[in-house]
Specification:
Blueprint: H1 7-16, H2 20-27, H3 36-47, H4 51-58, H5 62-70, H6 78-87, H7 92-101, H8 112-123, H9 127-136
Helix pairs in contact: 4-5, 4-6, 6-7, 8-9
Length: 143
């Protein structure tokens, strides 16, 4: 099994490659898959969570959340993904991975909104508790 390449290694190879098709083919396994519904289902199974409980804790519309889980909502907003991640009780590494799978930037400590969410994730706060902190600090809530 080949060693996983870092993002920096991939960028260096990409910048110097003459044949993109070959580069892509040789590095396909390094790319983050973009199947949010599959990732959510895997996390539910791994953590032995029930979808209805996660949705109830997410502060999202039940119909909208079920559409995300079912793959009908291919591009839910970053805040919606964060609601589900927090409702699932994901740790920071899992939240960052879920954001990447969704096509969004990971949480960034120097961004004021992200900093509050990071604090909440690291402390295991609920969506409502994080929303209160966001509101108290003049930021938009997760939803």
């Amino acid at each position: 099994m080949a060693e996983k390449k870092t993002t920096a290694q991939l960028l260096e190879e990409l910048a110097g490659c003459e044949d993109f098709t070959r580069f892509y083919r040789e590095n396909e396994e390094a790319f983050v898959p973009g199947d949010l519904a599959a990732e959510l289902e895997a996390l539910l199974a791994e953590k032995n969570l029930r979808k209805k409980d996660v949705i109830a804790s997410s502060n999202l519309s039940e119909i909208y959340a079920y559409q995300i889980f079912g793959g009908q909502r291919k591009n839910p907003g970053r805040e919606k993904v964060l609601c589900l991640a927090v409702a699932m009780g994901l740790n920071l590494e899992e939240v960052q991975k879920l954001l990447k799978v969704s096509g969004y930037a990971p949480l960034y400590a120097k961004n004021d909104f992200d900093c509050i969410v990071l604090y909440g994730v690291c402390r295991g706060l609920s969506v409502l508790e994080i929303n209160e902190m966001l509101y108290d600090n003049g930021k938009d809530t997760l939803g």
